[in-house]
Structures are given as C-alpha cells and as structure tokens.
Design goal:
single chain, alpha/beta, six-stranded mixed beta sheet, two-stranded antiparallel ribbon, 10 strands, 21% strand
Amino acid sequence: ERFCDWFRRLPFKEKLFVRGNHEKATRVRDMLGRCYLKGFRDCLGLRVFGLPWDSHGYSYGAIGAGGLPEGLDLLISHEPPHGTLDFASASNSMPSNIGSRRLQKAVAELAAREPSEKEDEECSTGATAPRVHLFGHVHEARGCEARNGTLFVNAANANPGKARRVEHGCIVLDLATDGSRDVRVVEGLKVGESQF
C-alpha cells in the first residue's frame, strides 16, 4: 500500500507500472488504476506494450499466435528475454540464464521481420523490433545491451539474489518522439540521491 501511495503521488504526466513477482495482481491493479500496464497503450506519443510477471507464463500468452506488435517504442516486461542480461548467479544453486524463452523468441521474430504495410503507416520509422525493452527480475544482471535495433535494459535495483535492500538508483531513459529511433541512457542515480 505504501508503494502504491508513493507511486500515485509521483509528479509525472504519465506513469506506467508492470507487475513483478512481489506484487499481488488484482490488488496492485486496483490500487494503481490507469498506471497499471498490461498490453498495448499509446503513451505521450510512444507505442508501449506491457507484460506483467506471471509464474505460469499466462501473461506471455499475449505474445503467442499474433506475436508482439511491430514498431513498439517501449516493451516493458518484468522478466528479461532468455540470454539477455539474465544470468542469475546469486539466486540459483546452479548459475544460469533464467530469462523467458517465449519472450526471447517473440523479440527475435520482430527483429527478423520485414515491416508490414499497416505498421509502416502507423510507425514512421518502419522498424519492427522494439526500440527499448525494459525489464528487471534478475538483480545481478543489471545493465544495458544493444542488439538488432533494440536497447535492452535490465533496470533491477535490488541486491543480488533474493531482494532484501535497494542497491542501485533508477536508470533514466530519454526516448526521442520526433520519429527517429534515438534513445539516450541518462546516468543512473545512486541510492540516496534525489531521484525526482
């Protein structure tokens, strides 16, 4: 409840929240209302798609038959795609890549796909892969990696392994809204610095 109160009070025009593995789905969705993101939304001129965490993978059913929408500016999921900023060494007895294979496949298919006529009309860049894929979940794999036209950002801010404390500040991204695919990663703030 304290988090939801704090989140709602943040002084931003738009706020988006994608549920992680520590939140109860219905309760958080009800408390955050419009801020809760699942599926597609146009947000301040950006094409955004959210995939909340789901221990059974049901939310990733949205990327099943039809796949992810083309031309996204921002894909937000709780889990990383398999093999991208997902190496878990502190939380597993067997260190390994623990990201979602279904998500990996969906993002790779977008990167390999030619833009459809419909998406070309809607998205002035004609790009199919998300400009940015933002996620967390694997705390010890925090960082950024660019590949196939997408900037992947693991913005996890908790300690490695099971979350007990915040060790990192936020990562601020600046996405151009002029039709270019420019993305700027602003220096992440350290814990204790004013974040807003």
